[in-house]
UniProtKB/TrEMBL annotation:
It comes from the Bacteria. This is Serine/threonine-protein kinase RsbW. InterPro entries: HATPase_C_sf, HATPase_dom. Residues 23-90 form the Histidine kinase/HSP90-like ATPase domain. Keywords: Kinase, Transferase. One of its GO terms (molecular function) is protein serine/threonine kinase activity. Its EC number is 2.7.11.1. Pfam families: HATPase_c_2. Signal peptide: none annotated. It comes from Actinoplanes digitatis. It is an enzyme of class 2 (transferase).
Amino acid sequence: MTQLQTTHPEPAFGDDVVLLTVPADGGYLGVLRTATAGLAARLHFALDEIEDLRIAVDEACAMLLAIATRGAELECRFAVTDDALTVEVTVSTVRGARLPSESSFAWKVLTALTTSASAEATGRHATIRLLTRRTEL
């Protein structure tokens, strides 16, 4: 079980929350990348921040696809606040599934491209959370 401890603010009343579910298949990751880019653009993220977040979401999903059960779905929850976008992706996992360790290259990518990244694998589900705050201009 891999768990990175990071506190993510829960969306407050009035925050926008978007839920998107797609088959746990690499062919559908473009849908999640596009949704990520659209929501980040809505927050007026810089183009390089949007691209970093798209790459981070892609990497997080790739980690989850590697441990997903056959026929699983990726459940993606986007929480939009005034200055941040939190992306939480969950999938049902095979028995004994483990996420990459905190020292893995995949986690280095996630933490370099986002403000914070965390994960948890409990029972038959794994979740990766990415928080990206807009840099001030």
